[in-house]
Every structure is written in C-alpha cells, then in structure tokens.
Specification:
three-stranded antiparallel sheet, disordered C terminus, Oxoglu/Fe-dep_dioxygenase_dom, 303 residues, oxidoreductase, metal ion binding, alpha+beta, globular, IPNS-like_sf, dioxygenase activity
Length: 303
C-alpha cells in the first residue's frame, strides 16, 4: 500500500496551479481516466516524506501482514439475553484491542448492500455533464462530490473521487439527491441508522452503562454517507487511493466491494489486510467515541 519514492520535483513545478487546473475541470480522477491518461499527474505522486508517514514500522512481509485478522462479530440473536452478553463481550474486546471489527448478520439485506454499491458506481460512471452539476467544494450542499476534501492543502492528492451526503439529522429532499442513486441512498441510510443505534447500545453495555447511554447523548443523531470511487490507475506505484488517517466520527460503518485493499494498523503497529467478507461490514471506532468513552487506540486505515 506504500508508494515508492518519486523522482526529484523540478524547480519549475507549480503544484498550486496544477491543482487548481485539475479542480476546475470538475471531472475528478474519473475524468483523467476517461481522457486516457497514460501517466499519473505529478499532483498525485507521493513525496518521499509521505512514504515514511504512511509506513508505520512497515517492515513486515506480505505474509506477516495477513498473520492477524480483525475480529468478526456475529450479531445474530442479539435480542436474546444470553447471546447478547456474548456479543457485548466480543464488541467490547474488539473495540478496546483493535478499534475495528467486522460484523455479520447485522440486519441489512445483501440485496441492499449490492444496490448501494451499484448506486455509487452508477453515480461516477454516468454522463459527465450530469455529474458535474454536483461537483463543488461548498460543504453546505446536501449532496456534493469532488476529489479529496483537502485537495488544496495536502502535499499529495489521493487517486480517488468521493461524494458526501448529509442524511441526518436533517435529511435532504429527494430531489436534491442524484437520480441514479437516490432511492438506494435513502433506503441504505435508514438501515445504517438502525444498525448504528444497535452498535451504540452494544458499546454502551460493553462500557458498563445503560444500553441507551450513547444514543441518549446524541452519538447517533447525525449520519453522513460517503461513496468513494477508485478508478483504474495507470501507475499505481506512484500514488495511493487513501493515505493513512483516522476517522473523526463516533462510528464508521464501512462497506467494501469485492476488490478489497483495506488495511488497518494492528498489533505491533503492523499493517493488517482486511479482506472483503461477503455480506459483512467493517466497524471503526472513531475519534469522537474515543474521546467520549476514553477508549484510547492508535488506529489508522487505508482503503
């Protein structure tokens, strides 16, 4: 996942102008691919100093990277008191030890998961003229897409386009959402809100609190849905889809596609692969929940 060092940057390279020119196309990384670029533009190259930052003691071999695996928690039977106690114990241990876990039998039908993946893909692969209408850096919009929220401030641009929509506490009007993924965004959001409230109940119990505690302090009040798109890259050794980072949310519920690529920092500060599990979701304990509960974990992930 770590890009090699790139060649020395020419003295006449003006990154600010290059970024601005790219952003003004309003076509994102997908637009570059559609144009048939054979070389990754320099704004996407990972500088040598970022190589070091993106490799946390990353001296392990590929076999070591798969030596560990994040816990998989089966939520089936969470309404049964005995079974629920087992689930709460597993969720608590995974949260404290890893900060990540996968969940199965979470209540969201596989059909909905497949439709939301198709909807995200459909948004990015629709006619560029339609998609451009949603390209903006005005985060007050109920739905918008662009390339990298920190495009103008980061030392390297990630090879990724992203849309974001605010689905709670003030859901958008249906007509504010793209037609190609409107219905499934609304359905998926309702399902994830239900799941999020359940997860916060389980986490509350794992902390020795009343099941309603985290929900009562509004940890489940808001919901943002992000859809990432990683187009095929002609020179993947020069760039990254997503740099090392931590989420500033209470919880992130992540749906992978079949391609995979997700890695997290696990035991001994080594990068751990998180292979896609059909029908499963990945749960990430975010910064806000750590602050609220005093769970302290050094975690990062790269999808």
């Amino acid at each position: 996942m770590v890009a090699p060092n790139t060649n020395e940057v020419p003295t006449n390279y003006d990154r600010k102008s290059a970024v601005k020119s790219f952003d003004e196309t309003r076509e994102g990384v997908k637009g570059l691919v559609d144009a048939g670029v054979a070389e990754v533009p320099r704004i996407f190259h990972q500088p040598p100093e970022l190589d070091d930052q993106n490799s946390i003691n990353n001296t392990s071999s590929d076999s070591e990277a798969t030596e560990f695996s994040i816990p998989l928690v089966d939520l089936e039977g969470h309404g049964n008191p005995t079974k629920r106690n087992e689930i709460v114990a597993k969720v608590g241990e995974a949260s404290e030890t890893w900060g990540f876990f996968q969940i199965a039998n979470h209540g969201i039908p596989v059909g909905v998961l497949e439709r939301i993946k198709d909807g995200v893909r459909g948004f990015y692969e629709q006619d560029t003229r339609v998609k451009k209408e949603f390209y903006t850096r005005n985060h007050s919009k109920p739905f918008f897409y662009n390339t990298n929220f920190d495009l103008y401030s980061s030392p390297a641009t990630n090879w990724r386009d992203t849309f974001l929509c605010y689905m709670a506490p003030n859901p958008p009007k249906p007509e504010d959402l793209p037609e190609v993924c409107r219905d499934v965004l609304i359905e998926y959001s309702k399902r994830v809100m239900e799941l999020g409230k359940l997860l916060l109940e389980l986490l509350s119990e794992a902390l020795g609190l009343k099941p309603s505690h985290l929900n009562n302090i509004d940890c489940s009040k808001g919901l943002q849905v992000l859809g990432h798109y990683y187009p095929a890259c002609p020179q993947p050794e020069l760039t990254l889809g997503t740099s090392k980072h931590a989420d500033n949310s209470f919880l992130t519920v992540l749906l992978q596609d079949h391609i995979g690529g997700l890695q997290v920092v696990g035991p001994q500060n080594k990068w751990i692969d998180v292979p896609p599990v059909p029908g499963a979701l990945v749960v990430n304990i975010g910064d806000l929940l750590q602050v609220s509960t005093r769970i302290q974990l050094p975690f990062f992930f790269i999808p």
